[in-house]
Every structure is written in structure tokens, then in C-alpha cells.
């Protein structure tokens, strides 16, 4: 068990958002970070993307089972690999077209490694789709604030309005944000 074995609401919201066709995924290179069950990445693969779902070693078996159980729906491709945030990402280069993240902002100790991984993985044309549930209990608001503060050093963010989310799979407290590398400004 643990947090990686649950299909969180933010994963459902992001998967259904992808299904709306808002992002052209066919034949695109897609990487899912902190995939857990792989629901979001598998959805992207059913929409024609070539997807690598990533998470820690202990979740690889679950990812492989879920990929196998859904392979009949996949029109692109999907595979699973170990990726520990903050570590070397050379095997995931060149930069993907899309990086998908659902509910990856909840653990303060993981913020810096996650941000390093995002910086290392993104190219100038990479679009990161980050979906998260805004939580109001305990340290969650502080962790969320710190994440977005640190993120804005290197990235530009834009919140996708609720009316662009799937009509049925949406919630006032679940947000989808697009994240792009800041463009280098010349002299």
C-alpha cells in the first residue's frame, strides 16, 4: 500500500481533462512523474501518446500490472521505469513533449528533488501539466505555497480555468496548472 496505490481525485481530474482533447497527445513523447497506479499516463497512451510512467522501485510491479490490464486500450505505447526525483535523468532525454503530474505536491522533503527533476527534464517546448488537490489541513497550504514560489524561479505557470476541465470530473479544490520553462532573455 501507501499513497502510490491509490487513484487520487486529482489523477481522475487530469485523466479526464486529457480525454477532452485539450492537449494534442497523439504521437507525442509523454512522461508521468509520481505515477502511482499509472492511471494518468495510461489514459495518455490510450489517446495515442508514447508514455513512460515513472515512480519508485516499489511501485513498478503495480504499474506493470495496470499497464498489462489496460494494453487493449492503448493506441500509443506505455512502459514503466524507476525515477527517483532529484537523481540523474539522462535515460529520459531528450526532453518529453509533456510531463504529467497528479497530486505530487504533499511532502515537503520531496519539493527540492521534484523541482530539480523538472528542471533537468524540461526543454524549451515541454509542457508540464500539474494537477493537485488544494488541501487546507496541517502543513499542506504551506507546502503548496513553497512549491509554487520555488517553481516560479525557473518556470511560468498558468492555471487552466475550471470551465475547461471535464464537465463531470471537476472540483473547485482541484486545480490544473500548465508549467513551461521561462524563456532565456538575451542581452
Describe what you observe in this structure.
There is one protein chain. This protein is an alpha/beta fold and 187 residues long. It has a single domain (9-181), classed as Rossmann fold (3-Layer(aba) Sandwich), CATH 3.40.50. Helix content is 28%, strand content 22%. It is built from 5 helices and 7 strands. The protein has helices at residues 9-19, 39-46, 60-70, 111-121, 140-151, and strands at residues 29-33, 50-55, 77-82, 98-102, 127-133, 155-159, 174-181. A 7-stranded mixed sheet has the order 3-2-1-4-5-7-6, covered by helices on one side. Strand 4, helix 4 and strand 5 form a beta-alpha-beta unit. Helix 1 runs parallel beside helix 2. The protein is globular and about 45 Å long. InterPro entries: Methyltransf_16, SAM-dependent_MTases_sf. Pfam families: Methyltransf_16. Keywords: Methyltransferase, S-adenosyl-L-methionine, Transferase. This is MT21D methyltransferase.
Supply the CATH class.
Alpha Beta
Strand order in space, largest sheet: 3-2-1-4-5-7-6
Label the overall shape: globular
Unreliable sequence segments: none
CATH superfamily name?
Vaccinia Virus protein VP39
- The CA-CA distance between the termini, in Å, is 52 Å
Tell me the series of helices and strands, N- to C-terminal. Answer: HEHEHEEHEHEE
Instruction: Tell me the number of strands.
Output: 7
Mean pLDDT: 93
How does CATH name the architecture?
Answer: 3-Layer(aba) Sandwich
Output the CATH topology. Answer: Rossmann fold
Number of helices: 5
Helices and strands, with pairings:
Elements lengths: L8 H11 L9 E5 L5 H8 L3 E6 L4 H11 L6 E6 L15 E5 L8 H11 L5 E7 L6 H12 L3 E5 L14 E8 L6
Parallel strand pairs: 1-2, 1-4, 2-3, 4-5
Antiparallel strand pairs: 5-7, 6-7
Helix pairs in contact: 1-2
Amino acid at each position: 500500500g501507501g499513497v502510490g496505490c491509490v487513484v487520487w481525485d486529482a489523477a481522475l481530474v487530469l485523466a479526464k481533462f486529457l480525454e477532452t482533447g485539450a492537449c494534442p497527445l497523439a504521437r507525442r513523447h509523454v512522461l508521468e512523474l509520481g505515477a502511482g497506479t499509472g492511471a494518468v499516463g495510461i489514459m495518455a497512451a490510450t489517446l495515442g501518446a508514447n508514455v513512460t510512467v515513472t515512480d519508485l522501485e516499489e511501485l513498478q510491479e503495480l504499474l506493470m500490472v495496470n499497464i498489462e490490464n489496460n494494453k487493449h486500450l492503448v493506441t500509443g505505447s506505455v512502459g514503466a521505469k524507476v525515477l527517483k526525483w532529484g537523481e540523474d535523468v539522462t535515460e529520459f532525454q531528450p526532453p518529453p513533449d509533456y510531463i504529467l503530474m497528479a497530486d505530487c505536491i504533499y511532502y515537503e522533503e520531496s519539493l527540492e528533488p521534484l523541482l530539480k527533476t523538472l528542471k533537468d527534464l524540461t526543454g524549451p517546448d515541454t509542457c508540464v501539466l500539474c494537477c493537485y488537490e488544494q488541501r487546507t489541513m496541517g502543513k499542506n497550504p504551506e507546502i503548496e505555497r513553497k512549491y509554487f514560489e520555488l517553481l516560479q524561479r525557473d518556470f511560468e505557470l498558468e492555471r487552466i480555468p475550471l470551465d475547461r476541465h471535464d464537465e463531470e470530473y471537476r472540483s473547485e479544490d482541484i486545480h490544473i496548472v500548465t508549467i513551461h520553462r521561462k524563456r532565456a532573455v538575451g542581452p
